[in-house]
Structure formats: structure tokens, C-alpha cells
Amino acid sequence: MIELFVGGHLFHPAALEWSHKKCSNGCCYCFANINNEERFSSDIKSPIRQLYKGKTVTHTDKLLNMNHTICISNRTDPFSRENYRDTLALATHLVTKKNSIFIQTKTGPGIQKFCDIYGDRKDVVFYITMTTINPEISKSIEPSAPLPDERLAAAKQLYDRGYMVVIALNPLVESWMSKNDISLLTNKLKDIGILHICVEMLDMSPARLKKLSAKKRSMLGDIILSDAQSNKNTKNRMYVREVVDILIDMGMIVAKKGMPFKTPFFDDVAVKLNVTYPVIQTFINHCMNTMKSPSLIKYAEYESVIAQGDIFNIVDNGNNIRSYLLRAGFPSWLENKDKVHSHKDLLRITWNDKRVRTSIQRHCLFRVAQRGGKNLLDDNGNIQLYYDGKPYLGGKGVVEL
Ligand code: SF4
What we know:
This protein is of the alpha/beta class and 401 residues long. The chain folds into 2 domains: 3-272, Aldolase class I (TIM Barrel); 293-400, no CATH class. Helix content is 40%, strand content 12%. Bound molecules: iron/sulfur cluster.
């Protein structure tokens, strides 16, 4: 099934996602495999039927018909040996629709054939993961994925064919990719012409660690495990920050969740795609461009910047928008399960509730404004945020005014 891409909400330009069955690349850090090694999606006929459905019944149908971008895929690799045939079969149908495609892959068989199917259409963004440039490390942590040089060669081919290529250092781990390797890789990317780069931390929470098999633990290694077990990934977090600075200094266009910098990264992605979902980074850029002195920010301003596009005009009782809250923050879902009928409702909840993973309250550039120890509310009962352009990396995320 093509589904709402709830995991990417406000972080990803695609509002829809399609995943295959289990991925065969076998990466030791794969959150999807850790969560459910034996996961199965519906067969390939299901998304094809969705594309040709005559009636608009579900919320997903509406977004499909509004030509929203589809991410393929956040939970499997479309070009792993197990999946590429289905990807190519689906591509012959997708290409007849106006929806742009955001491909997340380590490359593999069929990727150039996919481009052949798309012909002159270039509204496909390729997000190619590079966790190391060392082939031996790659074999040990991603045993069935293409080797780093093969991924780079595929990235060059795609770029030369006119596609936007994003390189994803995701997850970025120092023992897999040193600063020296970062420089080597960046220089190679610049030689190709690729400037867009995404950086993310290893997402290995204690809860995820508990589910990890002995084999995967040994693939990850003791240093990484002990940092993850500290519950804060302190060393990894610091390393990721340092690398973001290095990449920016080297002239790359960087995206990193929660980073306190302006970037045109998502604007550049949106230019390539047909219809995209907004991202929090647009609001960060807005604040940095327009707020030159300390400011109190009301929800109305956030909504005016983020709620762009027809998707925010849909009011859909009985829809599945609230499934986002169910997956992103259970308490929020319980309290709001009868109140989410639009993407504006969702936006307001994620503004007001820090427990939701994508709440802007979690961003280091903002703190909740308080007076006398109580949240300062606007006329509609929404919290207000304080912004002074400085990142606050510790504390409770509140400021007394
Ligand atoms: S390629 Fe992606 S989906 Fe497949 S195992 Fe690796 S991390 Fe998981």
C-alpha cells in the first residue's frame, strides 16, 4: 500500500511512502529490521491498484490525486536484490502519474533501468546513503549492499543524467567515517558536482538496543554500543555536529534535523519535485532571515509560513491523519484522537505538545516563553516561543520573561 509517510512529517518533502517487503541488504543499524525483521507489506498489485482507483475514498487517495511526492522507501531499499524487480514494475505505472518520486537507496541493480523508464522526466530525487568509504567496513555493517565505490559510481551516473542526487551520511559514525574520510568523500562529490548532503545520527535508543540480536550487536561494535547505551549518544552527537561544520565550511549544502543554521537544501529539493510537504527548516530559515532581535513568536506566524499548499485546506473527518499522532507520540494521540481532521490541526498539536517528535519546541533555537513559571499563551491558548538566534543545547527548553 502507498501510505501517509508519518515518519517524515515536517522533516521530509514526501507526504506519501511506499515500502517493499523485507529488505535484503542486512544493515546492522537498520531501524526497520530492528523493529520488525519479518515485516511484510502488501504485494505489488496493491499500490498499482491504488494508482488507478477511480474513486477518492481515503486521505491517501486524496494526496495521490493531488500529485504529492512519494518516498520509495523509508523502510526498505528499492534497489536491493530482493526488491528491484518490483520497483521496476511499479515504475512503469508510476511514470504515467504526475507524482514525483523521492528514492532512498544504497543503489543496486535496476537503478539505471528505472531512469530509462522515466525518460525525460527528472522529477526524481535520489538520496544515496554513504556510511563509509572503506569497503571492508561496508562489508561488515551492510553485508549485501553495494560497496562505497559502486554507490559513488551510480551517484555520478545519475547526476550526469540530470537528476538531483543527495548523499546521506546516515547514520554518521566516527569509526565508520573519519573526518579524513569525510574530506576525501566531499572532494569526490564536489568533483562530480554533487553538493547536497544530509547528515543524521545513529538512531539507537535503549529500547531499540534491547531488540538487537547478538549478531547485529557484534556488527555494530562495543564503542558504538556503549555510547548508545549512555542514552544520549554523547560522543556520536558531538561528532555529527563537528562534521556538519566541516561540510558547511567545505561549501556543501547541508541538511541535519535540528541544526541551528539556515540552508537552501529543501528549497532546492522542492524545485525538482512536483508537490511537496513543508518542513520545519523553512521556518528556521524564515526566523533567521526576518528576526534580527529577540522575538516572541505566535502560532499564527508558524502556520502562515508552514501551512502552504492545498493539503492544508482539506478537512477530513474520519481520516487517517491522526495515525501520525498515534505513531509519533501516544499521549498526544489519546488526548487529541477526536480533534485531528486536518493538517492544520496536526500542525497546531505539534506546536503545542513537546512529546511529539516533530514538535518545534524540541529545536534548540526555540524556548517556550513563561511568566511566573506558567506558559505564556496567545488568545487561542497556544504556547508562544522565544527566539534570539542562539542555540540552547541544555536546560528545560523554557525561558522566564
Ligand atoms: S538498505 Fe536500508 S532498509 Fe535495507 S537493511 Fe539497510 S538500512 Fe535497512
